[in-house]
Write a structure and sequence with these properties.
The structure holds 2 protein chains of 2 kinds.
Chain A (H helix, E strand, L loop, with lengths): L1 H16 L1 H19 L12 H31 L2 H6 L5 H31 L7 H25 L3 H18 L11 H7 L5 H12 L5 H21 L3
Chain B lengths: L2 E12 L2 E12 L3 E5 L6 H8 L7 E6 L8 H5 L2 E4 L11 H10 L7 H7 L15 H13 L5 E5 L7 H16 L3 E6 L2 H7 L2 E6 L2 E6 L1 H8 L4 H9 L5
Parallel strand pairs in B: 3-7, 3-8, 5-6, 6-7
Antiparallel strand pairs in B: 1-2, 1-4, 8-9
Helix pairs in contact in B: 3-4, 5-6, 8-9
Classes of the chains: A mainly alpha, B alpha/beta.
Membrane topology (chain A): Multi-pass membrane protein
Protein name (chain A): Transport permease protein
Keywords (chain A): Antibiotic resistance, Cell membrane, Membrane, Transmembrane, Transmembrane helix, Transport
Chain lengths: 241, 239
Amino acid sequence: MKGLANVVAVELKLIVRDPMSAFFALVFPAIMLWVKLRGGNKPLRGGTPLIDATVPMLTVFVIGLATLVVLPATLAHYRERRVLKRLRATPASRAMLFGAQWAAHMLLAVLGSALLIVIGLVAFGLTAPANVVGVLVAWLLGALSLGSIGLLLGALVPTGRAATVIGLAVFFPMVFLSGAMIPRETMSGSMRAIGDLLPMAPAVQAVRDGWAGGAPSPLTLGVMVAISIVAGGLALRTFRW
Amino acid sequence: MTAIIEINELSKSYKAGKAVDGVTLTVRRGEIFGIAGPNGAGKTTLVECASGLRRPDGGTLRVLGLDPYDDRRALLQRIGAQLQEAALPDAIKVGEALRMYASFYDKPADWRAVMDEWGLADRRRARFGNLSGGWKQRLFIALALVGNPEVVFLDELTTGLDPAARRTTWGLIREMRGRGVTVVLVTHFMDEAETLCDRLAIVDRGRVVAEGSPRELIAEVGADSLENAYFALTEREMA
C-alpha cells in the first residue's frame, strides 16, 4: 500500500509538471465556467440557478478530461517511449500500474473540481451540495467508470499523439451530448436520448441529483459500476506493455 | 563456480524467422558474461527470454533455478534488467525514480544508499530528460540494482555514449561484479567485451559460434585481438 501511494504521488507530480495536462484539467474547465456564467446566473427551466447546474456538470467535464484525454495519452506515451518496457522488467504488475494511473488522474480531477467549486463559491454564489455523500459517491463512481474507459484506450493505443486525438474525439461528443457542457434542461429531446446512451450521462445525472439534494438512483450508480467492471476487465486483458 | 543461468537448446521464432536457433550456454555466479554478435543475431531475444519477457518455443532455460516465463513473478524479484532503448518519463527526478523502483520489490536495497554509491546524490533533483547520456546510464545501472538482484541483464548499455562515458560505465559494471552481482552484458563492441567480460558467447544467426574467455576465443582462431577473432568467427568483413 505504501508502495502504491508512492507511485501515485510520483505519477501525479509527473502529470502536473506537464503544462498541457495541467492546462486541460485545471485551466480549461475554469475558462468553461467563466464562459457559461458570462451572461449572468439565470435560472434554468425547472428553476435551478445556472451556477448550481454548471459546477456539478463541469466536475464531470474535468473527470472526462483527466481520464479520457490525459490518462490514455500518459499510458500511450509511456508505451511509445518504452517506459512500460522498463517497468515490465520489474515486479510491478499491470494491476498496480492501472491502479496508480487511475488514482493519479482521479486526483488531478479532484484538483480541477475543487478549483471549480472554489471559483463557483467565491465569484458566482454557488449553493453548497445538499447531499454531500451522494455527490461524493456519484463523482467517485463517475471517475471509476470513465477512468476504466480511459485505461482501456490507454491499453490499446500505440502512441501518445494518437491517444490524444482519440481521447479528444471520444471526449468532446460525450461531454456535449451527456449534459456535461450544456445543461440537460436546454437540450432537445433527441440529443438527450442519444446522450443517455453514453457512459458519461449517468455520472452527470448522479452528481447533479446529489447536488440538488436528491438521492442518486441505484440504477444510475449500478450502470457506472457495471461500466467500470467491463471496461476495466477488458483493459487488463488487452493491455500491451 | 556454480551455474546461475543454464540455457539448453533454446529456440525462439518470430514471423520473420528464427531469432534464436538452438542456443546452449551457461553463466556462472559472480562473472561478467558477454553476449556479442552482429545486429539481428538474436542477442536481445536471448536476454528477453532469460528475463521472462518472452516465452521460448523450444529448449530449456533456468535462471536462478527458475523457469523465467512460468515463474516470472518470483524471478523478477531477484533480477535487474536494463533492456534496449527502455527509458523513463522525462519529467521524473532521479530520486523519485529510485524510490519508486525500490517500492516494486519485496526486499529492495536502501534506495538512498544506492543513489549515494553510484554518485547520483548530487543529481537527485535532476529530471531524467535533462541528464546526459552517461548520467542516464548511471541511473539505469542504479535502477537495475535497487531491487537487490542476484543477476543483472544489461542490453547495449553503452551504445551511443562518448568514449569517456563508456569507460566510466565499464568501471561501474566492474564494481557491480565486485559486489557479487552476476552481470549478463549484451554488446557489439569487441573492445568492451575484451576488457570487461570474464567469459562471453559470440552469437550469429541465432546460434552460439564460440564461447569462452576473451583469451580463449582469441587463441581458438589464432587472432591478435578479440575484434579480429570475432570477424573470423562470424565470417563477416568490415564494410
